[in-house]
Amino acid sequence: MGTEALRQPAEWSPHDAVWLAWPSHEALWGAALPEVRRSFTAFARAITRDGGERLEVLCPDDAQEDLARVALDGLDARFHRIPFGDIWLRDTAPVFMHDPSGAVVAVRFAFNGWGGKYELAHDTEVSARVAAAAGCRVVTHDFAMEGGSVEVDGEGTALSSRQCLLNPNRNPAMDEAAVTRAVLGAFGAERLLWVTDGLLNDHTDGHIDTIARFVAPGVVALMEPSGADDPNREVLRALRDELSGQRDARGRALELVFAPSPGRVEDGDGRVMPASHLNFYIGNRAVVVPTYRTAFDDAAGRAVEAMFPGRRVEVVDALPILRGGGAFHCISQQQPSRRHGAGR
Fold first, then answer.
1. The pTM is what?
2. Quick check: is 59 catalytic?
3. Interacting residues of 70 by C-beta distance below 8 A, sequence separation 6+
4. N or C end of the chain: which has fewer CB within 10 A?
5. Structural contact between residues 53 and 17, judged by C-beta atoms closer than 8 angstroms
6. Residue 253 in 3-state DSSP?
7. Quick check: 39 and 330 in contact, CB under 8 A?
């Protein structure tokens, strides 16, 4: 287990690349796979537009790489023959951090299939294989967590949900104090702010990256309920109440900013899906916001645009990917640029 002082930079810090996995498994996606690939490709193009950042794309075999190369033709992309269970690299890839010298380190955590719910071949090996492909030194922690369960501001503050990290299906022998120490140590943070619950029917047991996101130091984005039938109305109000008046590691009172919720988004069987406009990806040039073909898509795009002056904001249809359980932040893992200069 690594004990040195590492720190994950904020997502808005410069990136060298973003790691993605080409949607490949018809057994998982069925007839929706072509639509999923179109959504994935639109997301990738939004990231790279205007010289954004390089794509590092996992492909399980020759045939899938050929398809990916055609879809991503003309983009700054490199392809890696790495097998994977599914495309959720936010959770299966390593979390890239800085060491005190500014070098990029790949940090691995134990991965148990989101509490044993989705155990797919190769997913437990993805983080080691991506770290090797990135050429990074590796630090390993033995507690179970996923990258989407912790959000950082790069200045010492982290966010997470009790529903996820205190779930007995992750680390049953660890209480809140022990999990807090482990997260702070691993991410190089000084303060962990907890919220309670995530979105209804979230496969990940309440990942923070669908409900509360840092958009600047001291500023957290939340969602406001949309529509009388919003299934997350009470959860979203509780999040606002839990974070109101909280202070970050620098002593700043959190500023809360809001985007609309997508409201009620159902799958083909009428089951509520965990749709979130906050599952955006913050790239070097663009913030890519997932939309779900609802009446609130345009307003969500405008709200996120106001949070990121100086960055282009693009809205991209994520409904096909949501049917698998997540959106754009869930399928991506940024690799930060080396930090130059001494000190934090």
1. 0.96
2. no
3. none
4. N
5. yes
6. strand
7. no
- Beta strands 95-98; 77-81: pairing state: unpaired
Distance (Å, rounded) from C-alpha 184 to C-alpha 232? 29
Write down the pLDDT at residue 4: 64
Q: b/e for 99-116, b at 16 or more Cβ within 10 A?
A: beeeebbbbbbebbbbbe
**Tokens, residue 63:** 């045939």
Half-sphere exposure in the Cβ direction for 27 (13 Å, CA): 4
Rounded CA-CA distance 223/334 in Å is 24
Instruction: State residue 339's pLDDT score.
Output: 86
- β-pairing, 104-110 vs 219-224, is unpaired
Count CB atoms within 10 A of the CB of residue 251.
8
Copy the structure tokens of residue 144. 């179970």
Q: Which domains does the chain have, with CATH numbers?
A: 15-336 (3.75.10.10)
Of residues 59, 136, 164, 330, which has the active-site annotation? 330
The rounded average pLDDT for each run of 10 residues, N- to C-terminus, in the chain (344 residues) is 77 98 97 98 96 96 98 98 98 98 97 93 96 97 97 98 97 97 97 98 97 97 96 98 97 98 96 98 98 98 97 98 97 94 44
What is the spatial distance between Cα 145 and Cα 174, in angstroms, rounded to a whole number?
Answer: 12
Q: Which two tokens stand for residue 334?
A: 């940024």
Supply the pLDDT for residue 2.
42
